[in-house]
């Protein structure tokens, strides 16, 4: 059984790796988007799914990475792969700044703080317009790197999923989940909840940071409104919830299924898009809180660490 | 002697086959575009879409373009540049459309242009007003409307002519408004006015009281506000509340919409606005076009409708002159073309930047918009100075 | 200039206080963070808009109507959806109300379109000693003060109010004392929604109405709760006024852009220094 699964996975990876040779420009961009969502949903899962600390402002890390990466490419001439890593680092730095005050307290305060983070970053970007171009946005030198970015984004998706798997199968992950289930008990047991939560937050910020920088390079132009939209946070939450928060492959499943659904079905009904997402969130929370994967895990006695 | 008959027959057959085959193999000319049908720009994006639709209808009524029918393929980018980029890739690489027309707004155009340049497709971008888009060495993008920087030109010019000395400039912190504001500041300085106060406010800001309090203290003769709709409304209301009384007060986008007056009623009187187009301007076929649009869509067109229509017409004209859709030939024609449509004059420089189109400044007078600038298009005199709120 | 902004701050603060009180009640009684609070405010604003433009009602008279309507909506939401997550981990209630908020905003976009609406009723200001007192904002202030005062009266003097406060302090003990906790939860959610609606109704005359208008109010209401102390209802009043003042005064010295950051910095500072709020509340 294990062998079959491993071979199947390898085939999938091989197919994806060779796709750019046969795919159209649009096709390559679309799959690249799926990779991005896998990375984003997976990252959100690291903090919110595992520790139970809901992050409503996760797109802030995406935007921070986008700006850091874009500024380095446009103003300092950095090569984009390096800028992407820097984007991840910037996001992690932001996570430290936010995490320190907000994670000392319980969940609700963290959620509230994350809710407003987005707007603040937008305001700061506008304020430091000498650096960021403010409302004018930032243009990067033209470069068609669609295919290399495809591979890097794919690598990112793999990395985030890999990190998730490592965490879930480790004691560190168990401790995070203990915090989720009963933080008081966790503390009583001697777990340093603050540092664990902080570590989870930092890990969850890196992925979006890199993804943001890559997206900035890919689009060639960013402006505050388009890299800090609530829609990105909503989408990553829906994907992770639907697939199964707290699981490793849940976000992957959620990202693929919902992205495809979006492109094929919902593109025809753009007007009700957010409504559908809202309805899915409500349905999942009430009816299948552990997501599709969680349901399958229960039904078919799948291993906990999927 | 060689018999000519078989050769002639062969040529005749070849011509017949050659003549017949292309005709049946030609489908409609598909023009692709990504428009903001939902999201922040939905209202104006829809008007642009209607402009494209009317153009499609009119072209087909006259026999189509290059002997083929015209068919628009339109997707919704939800007012997001990232989505527009993907959709233009889709239109070009998957739907394989024959031609491209531009999206709504400068930010979306700026992002989309990278795609069209990559695939070397001509894109007439009728609703992009930001100069920087057309100054980056791009080859296949063409501007139709006047740039953002001149939106407030009329206001500043009229102020200078009447001997006013000081001006305050405020703007929303987005691409277009910033360009309009910086253009206003440049123009003011050129005409000898002193800029005494500037401030940018975030998009979505609803409370201008602090801004206006500081502005009132600066006591400027003129207030030039680079706005959209809701900020223009909020700003005006709060000016009345805080009793801020410049001698001239002008806004940019949003001030020309009928809703502006409907919402503010009397308080909109005396406000100057700038518009790329008015149905009353003496451009060829303008009045008829206005009636036709109203009949087709059941509401008045805005300048976005007119610009969309004109952009499509201009592209068609260039394609006709190039006798085909080859990007480089059409591009050559667009660079050379000088014409006047229902929307106004068209002429671009070597970078595709619009140089001929003129904006007009109007003032709300007795519930109507009266064109007051430039002088050769003006229909009325401005009511100057704007009386203070308390004495209206 | 300073005097002017202080006045503006107090006027704005009263609305913050009233709306935040609604949120605070829901949080205090049910430990539910109602992310949908902003959208409920938005629905209140639309109620006023339609009653004023279609039925010709005086906008200020629509306030009680909007409150009653959204009270009903709140009851419904609680009875159908929210009650299921009251005992669940906080993650669930956060996500649920988040889902509800997105759905409500989109429903509003579908039903009302994103076109900006505005209610034109009264504009201008009373000028008192060189200070301009915006007419619509002063009237809103008076209404908000009245509604808030009535709310406190209800909380302090009536049996219902005492039951609410008891449940807020300790659910188990309240139950033991015979309070129908489920019913209290329902009524509190409705009450909270009604307060949000009142805020929306009053805002309708001041700002442009559009489906996304509520989002920023959710965050600021939380901020007020944090400032005043969770579970501390009078604290919401102080917090609201404080927020209003800080924002206005800050915009005087900083640009309008940065004033958004100020609110946030305030939040972080309070969380760092005195997380139980300025007046002290209950730790969660």
Structure, described:
- The complex is a heterotrimer of chains A (306), B (392) and C (284).
- Chain A has helices spanning 2-22, 25-51, 59-76, 80-102, 107-127, 129-132, 146-168, 171-181, 183-188, 193-219, 224-227, 230-243, 250-264, 273-287, 291-300, and strands at 138-139, 221-222.
- The model of chain A has no long low-confidence stretch (mean pLDDT 88).
- Chain A is mainly α.
- The radius of gyration of chain A is 19 Å and the shape is globular.
- Chain A starts with a helix and ends in a 6-residue tail after the last helix.
- In chain A, helix 2 (25-51) crosses helix 12, helix 3 packs across helix 4 and helix 12 runs parallel beside helix 14 (273-287).
- Chain A has a two-stranded antiparallel sheet.
- With 392 residues, chain B is an alpha/beta fold.
- Chain B has two domains: 27-146 and 282-346, Response regulator (Rossmann fold); 149-275 and 359-391, Rossmann fold (3-Layer(aba) Sandwich).
- Chain B has helices spanning 4-25, 42-61, 81-94, 106-118, 153-161, 175-190, 209-218, 229-242, 258-264, 286-297, 303-321, 327-336, and strands spanning 29-35, 70-76, 99-101, 123-125, 141-143, 166-172, 194-201, 222-226, 248-250, 272-275, 339-341, 344-346, 360-365, 368-373.
- In chain B, the strands form four sheets. A five-stranded parallel beta sheet of chain B has the order 2-1-3-4-5, sandwiched between helices. A four-stranded parallel beta sheet of chain B has the order 7-6-8-9, with helices on both faces.
- In chain B, helix 2 packs across helix 11 and helix 7 packs across helix 8.
- Residues 7-25 of chain B have low confidence and may be disordered.
- Chain C has one domain (15-213).
- Helices cover 71% and strands 3% of the residues of chain C.
- Chain C contains eleven helices and two strands; from the N terminus they run H-H-H-H-E-E-H-H-H-H-H-H-H.
- A two-stranded antiparallel ribbon of chain C has the order 1-2.
- In chain C, a hairpin with a 2-residue loop joins strand 1 and strand 2 (131-134).
- Classes of the chains: A mainly alpha (306), B alpha/beta (392), C mainly alpha (284).
- Chains in contact: A-B, A-C, B-C.
- Chain A binds chain C through residues 48, 52-54, 56, 101-102, 104-109, 111-113, 115-117, 119-120, 123-124, 126-127, 180, 230, 234, 237, 241, 271-275, 277-282, 285-286, 289, and chain C through 27, 33, 35, 81, 84-85, 88-92, 94-96, 98-107, 109-110, 215-216, 218-219, 222-223, 226, 255, 257-258, 260-261, 263-264, 267-268, 271-272, 275, 284.
